[in-house]
Predict the 3D structure of the following.
Amino acid sequence: FSASQRLLDGDETALVLLPVYKEGQPVDFKALRYPVIPDGSLVMPGSFNPPHKGHISLGKAALRAADRMGFSTKHQKMPIFMELSLTNADKPPIDPQTASERIKKFLQLEDLPAHWGVVLTRAPLFSQKLSCLQNCVMESSDGQHGKISFVIGADTLSRILNPKYYNDDRDQMIDALLSMKGAHFIAGGRVEQKKESSEPAQFITGKEELSGLPPDLKEKFTIIEEQEFRVDISSTEIRQKEAEQANKVSGEVK
């Protein structure tokens, strides 16, 4: 996966991959010669370790939300791109082989969106993602800032709005987010994780995170309601189940 290596080496800023279909099924990816995406694209950042039906369901719910809000591109259909940053602020870089393995697992998923793709970057922070992706926009509608709608989960929404990540300064958080011209966030919820409790788990939409925000900042966020999206599965749970199954098989072999 030489293109990914060039990305890590700093020779490329982004890599756009589009699925190649055969008999109605995605079988591979093709890397665009130049990293370009339509203005107004939806982008779902994630580690995708592994990708699963929850990612796809959230993406399609976000597409429906964008359609209801009148978001548009110059293309007939709104595209959504899964964005994987090969670099992380707190972890070692993802090597090209691992990135390739994760991306190819998208090809095994069902009910994929009609227009989708993958973007590889080395932009771990949202401000960096926005700058990188806006540089990929073919032609912005206002001639200035390309429009990007990030599709995120409730946990990511909570982190974005947590002053802890802005020197514990709420005003700094507000200013930083308002400075992200052209960015919008569409957030889907999740089931509250309880290790030991007899009470039923609550579904967290993230709506409470928006209370008290200035109106001009609040309008940068859209919450997907529970009736529009709910998939009680996560990549962490999948990895745990895979590890348990592997241990079980190992034990049987011994």
